[in-house]
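Any chance you'd type out a single protein's sequence alongside its tokenized fold?
>
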Amino acid sequence: MEFRVKAVVRGTVCVAALVAALTGCGGDGGTSALGADGKVAPVALTAEQIRAALPTETSLGDIFSGDEAVVAQGQEAREFCAEESGTACEGLVAAGHQELAVRGSSDDGKLEFTLVSFDSPAAAAVVMKGLADEERSDGDAPEPVRVEAGADETDAFASSSRVTHVYLRVGGVVAYVRAIETELGNVNRAAVHQVERIKNGA
């Protein structure tokens, strides 16, 4: 499976199914730097921690299905990061990607999650800005949207009527959530869920 952020997808997400699956996945969306178990959010995640922090079929609900998460480090991760962000990706530790589709849907509806870990929050902030800027320059003028997921930084926008992009930074970890034709409330729940898994160190 190719390791990447951008994917060409068609179809729509089953909104009713997403509501059922995502409701209850997230917390209160607060801004605390602590995970649910009271641990301080890690500055960086290792490759194995990234694999564990990516959402899964089980964590989001049985209506989703997907292949095993792809995790990379070293040159492969750096090349991916540099290509997608237009930055040098200094301090990169590891990266991972997971795609989940609504089970049994003929519309190919998907939620995509990407994590990139760095050795400092400053390095992560540079790449988060680069990733968002690259996406904004690719296609129609984006429309800002409001997402509150408890991250240190958030940048969210819709690039079209079909796709919502959410960039989040938690310490030294950058998260990207890509949703296709999904109501904003469900996008927010997915983002909260991802932030909580990062903060817990999974």
Remarks:
- The radius of gyration is 15 Å.
- The longest strand covers residues 92-102.
